[in-house]
Amino acid sequence: MAVKAKELWRKRFGHGIPLFDISKNDGNIVILLNDYNETEDNIFNRLVLLDEKGATIGSYDLNPEFYVSDLKFAGDYIVCFGAKDEGAFFQMFNRSLNLAAGGLLDILGDSTRIFVKGHDWYAYKKTGNYKKLRCYKNGLLAWEQEVSGESYAPLITISGESELIHVWMGQKSESLSKISVMGFGGEKKCDVLVPAIGAYSSFSSKKITVIGGDSYTPQPNPLTVYDNSGNLLFQKQLRIETRSVFVSKTDTVFVGLHSEYDNHVGGIIIFDRGGNEVADIDTKNWAGGFVSVKGGDVVAAQSGDKLLLFDKNGLHLDTVCDVQSFSPCAAGANHILTKNMHLGKDKKDNFDELVLLKVVE
Fold it and tell me: How many CB atoms lie within 10 A of CB 185?
């Protein structure tokens, strides 16, 4: 399959663009304009809704006391999630940017992200001395259940396209931690054991679960892959820390690497379901933030100032340059939304530009 990414447009908005998303049908784009990273104040705090050509449909000025940490399309709504008044706060808007709902959630300290599954969005919290897992669905308390865990045990990082969630249940021994693999509705799938380490990134397809480790040190870090019944498929020691993991529709495992100590160290390693190495690309920069388009046939990954495209089996297809972004890219049906963050010698020279790409054959 001869596939490439065609750049449709780049656009600046005169402010920083810390967060952005694109709807699943490619028809709408929402961005947050905010200069906090430059000015350390939150006075300018605006949502802007765009069409696929980059034209402004509407805007909404958020309260300066609302510090947004995640922005997502969920069904017919746009969800802003973050912190306000020392608590977690959300606001939901329709596709005309009319406010539909909002309120405080008791989850601050456990999560700065929301997770979208289908038309719904979820946020999770460990409570009751970390013995209960609480789930909020579309801003309302959906369920709460008892979970095991001897110590601080938050939800671990998962990709936005993951089929399941993963909850760290604490260390079972000096060398092993237990992670519970669950559906978004709280249904238990299995428990798995992984090497005890500082942090994790994880992803589940319909068949397998991948968990990568990050020790926060420049040394080999573990990758563990199970099927969704809890049977170990393979383990690897990677050359550096894991930034994010992903599984394609063929259960090909993509791993983005980074280093806490050197921005010029990183890359992408790809394995098949049996643990055989498909590719090891030294991008000499952090890598991760995987998304898929074209019905899952194409996988994209951000790495420094580049965006790399692969087919579902890990074959490298194309590379897009001049798209420096620490934010994960966003994917619609056939489009990828990212940005180019220009850092000048003086803050006055800094700018963000939004970049829309279309994956074409």
Answer: 13
User: Over 90: is that where the pLDDT of 299 sits?
Assistant: yes
Distance between CA 123 and CA 112 in Å, rounded? Answer: 9
Query: What backbone torsions phi and psi does residue 295 show, to the nearest 5 degrees?
Result: 65, 25
Distance CA 179, CA 164 (A): 12
Q: Could you tell me if residue 59 is inside a domain?
A: no
Residues pairing with 331 in the sheet: 336
Convert the pLDDT of each residue in 161-208 to its tens digit.
899 999 888 888 889 999 999 999 889 999 999 999 888 999 999 999
CB–CB of 359/316 below 8 Å?
no
* pLDDT at residue 73 tops 60: yes
Residue 338 lies in a domain: no
Tell me the CATH number at 295: 2.130.10.10
Inter-CA distances, 254 with 25, 77, 183, Å: 25, 30, 22
Q: How many CA atoms lie within 13 A of 91 on its CB side?
A: 17
With respect to residue 279, please indicate whether it lies within any of the assigned structural domains.
yes
Q: Is residue 137 part of a domain?
A: no
DSSP readout, 141-182?
Answer: EEEEEE---SS--PBPEE-TT-SSEEEEEEESSSSEEEEEEE
- Pairing between β-strand 188-195 and β-strand 199-204 as defined by DSSP bridges: unpaired
Where is 266: in which H helix or E strand?
A: strand 266-271
Q: How many domains does the chain have?
A: 1
Parallel, antiparallel or unpaired: strands 4-12 and 77-84: unpaired
State residue 155's pLDDT score.
58
Q: In which order are the strands placed within the sheet that holds 221-227?
A: 157-158, 199-204, 208-214, 221-227, 232-238
Structural domain containing residue 194: 147-321
**41-71 pLDDT tens trace:** 899 999 999 999 999 999 999 999 999 999 9
